[in-house]
Amino acid sequence: MKKNKTTHFMSWVLILCFVGIFLLVAGRFLYIQATGEIDNVSLDKWAEEMRTASYTLEAERGKIYDTNGMTLAYNRPTYRVQAIVDESYTQNPEEPMHVKNPEKTAEVLAPLLDAEKRFLLERIKKGIEKDLFQVEFGKVGRELSQQTKKEIESLDLPGITFTEEAIRYYPNGMFASHILGFARKQEGQIVGQTGIEKEMNKLLGGEDGHISYERDNYNTELLNPNEVIKKPEDGEDVYLTIDQKIQTLLEDTMTEMFKKYNPERMTAIVMDPKTGEVVAMSNRPSYNPNVLDNVENWYNDAISTPFEPGSTMKMFTWAAAMEEGVYKGDEWFKSGKYRISEKMRPIHDWDGDWGSITYDEGFARSSNVAAAKLVWEKIGPEKFLDYLNAFDFDEKTGIDLPGEVVGEILYNWPIEKLTTSYGQGTTTTPIQLMKAATAIANDGKMMKPYVISKIVDSSTGDVIKKKSPEVVDTPISEETSKQMMDLLGSAVSAEYGTGDDYALEDYSVAGKTGTAQIPDPDNPGYMTGHENYIFSFLGMAPKDDPELMMYVSVKQPELEGYTPGSKPISFVFRNVMSKSLHYLSIDPDKESSKPVDSVTVPELLGQDVNAVKGSLTEKGINVTVIGNGTTVQKASVEKGEKLLPTDRVMLVTEKPVMPDITGWSMREVLELASLLDLKVETLGNGYAFSQSIKEGSPVKKNDYLGVEFTPPGVTPEQEPPPEEGQEQDPVSDDNTTEEDTETSEDSGSGSDTEEQT
């Protein structure tokens, strides 16, 4: 009896416990059903979020154009390949939608992706083992061309899908690369890293949109998907002051000299001194922003690398003396050596001693003694410092490019005040020199340099913002400007002038040479030797009404024998300045000149190809006909463009065939590939000597063209191997795979020695 009572009691306890638990659970269900919430989380909203797929709608990044509307940078579509490895994605076994045979898939994809079969197979198997929905293949599976995508699709491989994604593309390759900079994917967006791409990143990038909708487990949109769409706002277009024709002239000429003389650095700027517009700017070494491997120089030296300018600084010393009213050009002084006290080492002229000469002749001969005497005895060191500040040598130019660095006025001790007068000790950048020189070339008005012309709405074509020339100061008067231009003209035209190697056949030139010493990194003082200088020239033309101003410098060129350091820079200056002035239809101002007119492109499309070729050839244009048809379907130039004699024009007919491109520059090859929509791969530098598509072979869109290049004058077997230890791309890749010394002041007849302190 006692045992039964205990059993009954425990049974009731258990019954009560179960009833309590049941009531608790039932109550919880009733509460959830009534409120639709768990822990203050709405189940309706949670379910909606789980069913909702959301995707970013990328904004189209704005284009970058030159001043004439030539496209310099744009987004190009590429493709990313994925392999779906989740078996549940396949609904019909007869039509598999996942990777059914990993071994075969990896084997077939490997050659098309230029990857190892083992690597692809490991990726697929790892995805299967980890129950992933899909896998990707890192760098080898990204940025695929339309042609590669079509080849893979033709194999009909189960589970292989593609996602379209844009990359930033620069159709002219190594063209104004330090100005344009480059942009690349960063956290799913194309972001500017350097140059204009970085400076204008926010405007170019626009604002992404998004789309969201409800879908089932198989990502299929529901009948009532509650779709929400926010359209992207595309980026704005940026137009530069750069002129594609003049920039191309500069690029090609600098490349030729860089190959011939192998200097450590080269820099050149072409500017309109009346407005401050930069029409061309280039540095060597340079790089192709489409291929960021083994880049030797990321810096835009024209704005980012201060150096001791040498004798180009003398134009500002003489201008200061004129403006102060203390300059008498016909006053005589004793050249050769100058010392302000017995305790200080003397200043020497570069060619020893010319005896007694005038200050005008001293400028043409580039006399250090004359510069030092003007500062110490005529202007006064403190007043000269005021002029250096007035020419803005103590601050940035404010050019609309990132990374500008300001030089330093070294002006503490008497010897530094003397050496600054002829460009030693004090440092400046090429763009600072150019800005200051606009005052001399532009009636005393100093202009702010700029490279962005206007911002345009990419969808409507409306101009959002347009830049105008800006006068930042007037450090000298118009009278001083004209007097200084005459003196600069004598430095080029006078028999004893140091700049006679820069004279043009058909235009008068005003300019000043410079030969700057280079500090020795291993010892106190400066480097010695015939080649260890920065040779430079700053010139304007035509002299009486300058339309263009140009600066060229070359650091440590390899010079054979007694070759003067002026040779590479004078070649660049003469070729670019003369052809650019003709291209701009500037009338020559020399009576003995032979006018070379630019050619305005007529209507080409739809015209008879033989008639067009004959007309252009008569005017000196190099015409290449691509195809066997009778009418012009495409052309490398547009109606209204101006061409220089010897420019190449490509005419595509209705039956295009591959031309012989031997001897073509890389720019011309890239232009051809763009015109014919070819997938091009280049190897080497210089000029084309071999092509993968034979001459006369029919070509069609997305055909592959491989071209090998060799430097001018070098046969392929003589071409040196690539240098080791080159600087690597500093931007991480997010792929999932791996005492007194001497310097020279060049003249046209040879290289002399200018001793600077």
Keywords:
37 strands; single chain; Penicillin-binding protein 2a (Domain 2); Trypsin Inhibitor V, Chain A; seven-stranded mixed β-sheet; Beta-lactamase; disordered C terminus; alpha+beta
Q: What does this molecule look like?
A:
Belongs to the transpeptidase family. InterPro entries: Beta-lactam/transpept, Beta-lactam/transpept-like, PASTA_dom, PBP_dimer, PBP_dimer_sf, PCN-bd_Tpept. The chain has 757 residues and is of the alpha+beta class. It folds into three domains: 56-240, Penicillin-binding protein 2a (Domain 2); 244-288 and 299-583, DD-peptidase/beta-lactamase superfamily (Beta-lactamase, 3-Layer(aba) Sandwich); 599-718, 2-Layer Sandwich (Trypsin Inhibitor V, Chain A), CATH 3.30.10. The strands form 13 sheets. Strands 4, 5, 6, 7, 12, 20 and 21 form a seven-stranded mixed sheet that branches. It has a five-stranded antiparallel sheet with strand order 14-13-25-24-23, with helices on both faces. Strand 24 and strand 25 (548-555) form a beta hairpin. Helix 11 (314-324) runs parallel beside helix 13 (368-379). The radius of gyration is 35 Å and the shape is elongated.
